[in-house]
Specification:
By secondary structure, this protein is an alpha+beta fold. Helices cover 28% and strands 26% of the residues. The strands form three sheets. It has a two-stranded antiparallel sheet with strand order 1-2. Strands 3-4 form a two-stranded antiparallel sheet. 9% of the residues are buried.
């Protein structure tokens, strides 16, 4: 996801996401650089791709505006459930602990 730093430079980081019918939901930690960027300026760009070999590559960009959604909000239940379902394998066992230790500020 790309967001804007306070000085206007782009800030681009890979983030976990789920794409539901009505929106793309991207996860980041409250207080992280990404969070601070979108709280200050909600303009973002998302880049999606697939394939490994050059002949398989395909993708696209989505420009939009971020809206904050915290786990305590009732509207968060559906995207959070989808997120946990999608990333269950990575979060199982010590997967989430490793993620939290290896990625302190996405």
């Amino acid at each position: 996801m790309g967001s804007l730093l306070p000085d206007g430079r782009p800030h681009v980081v890979p983030l976990w996401f789920v794409w539901l019918e009505d929106a793309v939901f991207v996860s980041c930690r409250q207080g992280s650089r990404v969070w601070r960027n979108v709280m200050r300026d909600p303009r973002v760009v998302l880049q999606f791709d697939r394939g490994r070999a050059w002949t398989e590559l395909a993708g696209g960009l989505v420009h939009g505006r971020a809206e904050s959604l915290v786990p305590e909000q009732p509207e968060a239940r559906r995207p959070l459930s989808a997120w946990f379902e999608k990333y269950r394998g990575a979060l199982g066992g010590d997967g989430f602990t490793r993620y939290a230790e290896d990625v302190p500020r996405p």
